[in-house]
Write a structure and sequence with these properties.
InterPro entries: Leu-rich_rpt, LRR-containing, LRR_dom_sf. It holds the Pfam family LRR_6. This is Rni-like superfamily protein. By secondary structure, this protein is α/β, with parallel strands linked by helices. The chain folds into 3 domains: 55 residues; 156 residues, Ribonuclease Inhibitor (Leucine-rich repeat, LRR (right-handed beta-alpha superhelix), Alpha-Beta Horseshoe); 79 residues. The protein is built from 12 helices and 6 strands. It has a 6-stranded parallel β-sheet. α1 packs antiparallel against α2, α6 runs parallel beside α7 and α7 packs parallel to α8. The radius of gyration is 23 Å and the shape is globular.
Length: 315
């Protein structure tokens, strides 16, 4: 079996290392049946072909294994190989027959990997129990250093209880920026939990809810408004940080004024713009960034401010 998979045919060194780690998970023991060997051979070939596709000079890359059907053994081998990997930033396993048990295996990967930013598990029978494994892993103490930014869970048999679990993720995670949960069976009640969780979440800027037949346009509009608010806030924070680095203090105040104007228009609270300018919270922020041209506000201060501002906004 080994001669078929020449490591020299994989041009990317990091992809080579990944394949070597994966291949070691399948020792050619004599007691394995012929059928089992064929199955293992097929799984190894899937990973081998994907590693071959990686260009020589890539340091970070997508591992696209859609329709792969790795099976439990193959998925375990893949996740084990990725525990301390530093090259795969995106992992796509669409239509790969990943069920609750498979989600549990991936959840262990999420606790240990610090490089993966995007995971796509769409069109798999993950179900509510599988989502619980994933969410518990993402918000666990063990995964504090994980950097997951995008999670795609379209068409995974997600129902009301699953939506409530997703709301718990949004309530306890301030790293995720993109979440797709379209083509599921989410109810208005389930989405209500998500909407409540988003009021305290300033990070998520994209939420796909398409093709959930039990949701009304009013339900979706309310949540979309909150996510749009987050997009405004994140744009403002980025502008503040960029200007902070350049010490353009007047520009920072203009950017912040625009953020209040944008939020006021979004919420239909035109009068609240002037009210916000008069709040102690705004005055403290204004003083902090105009106090000294030598002081540059830290990232944490600006992010904390945005969260405090949002919490006041929804009182």
């Amino acid at each position: 079996m080994g001669s078929k998979f020449s490591i020299n045919k994989i041009k990317n060194k990091k992809a080579q290392n990944l394949f070597i780690k994966f291949r070691k998970q399948f020792p050619e023991e004599e007691f394995i049946s012929t059928d089992e060997k064929k199955k293992h051979y097929g799984v190894i070939e899937i990973i081998y072909r994907e590693c071959q596709r990686k260009k020589k000079d890539l340091n970070k890359f997508l591992l696209k294994l859609d329709n792969s059907r790795l099976g439990i053994k193959g998925l375990e081998a893949l996740c084990t190989s990725l525990y301390e990997d530093d090259c795969v930033t995106q992992l796509s396993l669409r239509k790969s027959e990943i069920n609750q048990q498979g989600a549990r295996i991936i959840s262990e990967l999420l606790k240990k990997n610090q490089t993966i930013t995007d995971i796509d598990l769409s069109s798999n029978p993950v179900g509510t129990a599988g989502v619980r494994f994933l969410v518990d892993a993402i918000i666990s103490i063990e995964s504090e250093k994980q950097n997951l930014k995008a999670l795609y869970l379209n068409n995974i048999e997600l129902k009301e209880e699953g939506a409530i679990i997703v709301s718990y993720l949004l309530e306890n995670n301030q790293k995720l920026e993109i979440l797709e949960i379209g083509a599921n069976d989410i109810t208005s009640r389930g989405l209500g939990y998500i909407a409540d969780a988003l009021k305290g979440n300033t990070r998520l800027v994209s939420l796909n809810l398409e093709s959930n037949p039990k949701l009304t346009s009013e339900d979706v509009e309310e949540v979309t408004k909150i996510v749009t608010r987050n997009a405004i806030i994140n744009e403002v924070i980025e502008g503040l940080l960029n200007n902070a680095c350049q010490r353009q203090f007047k520009t920072r105040m203009i950017v912040f004024d625009k953020s209040i104007r944008g939020l006021a228009m979004l919420e239909g609270k035109k009068n609240q713009m002037n009210q916000a300018r008069g709040t102690p919270l705004y005055q403290v922020f204004q003083q902090s960034i105009t106090k000294s041209k030598q002081d540059v506000p830290k990232v944490e201060k600006i992010e904390n401010f945005s969260m405090r501002f949002v919490s006041c906004w929804y009182r």
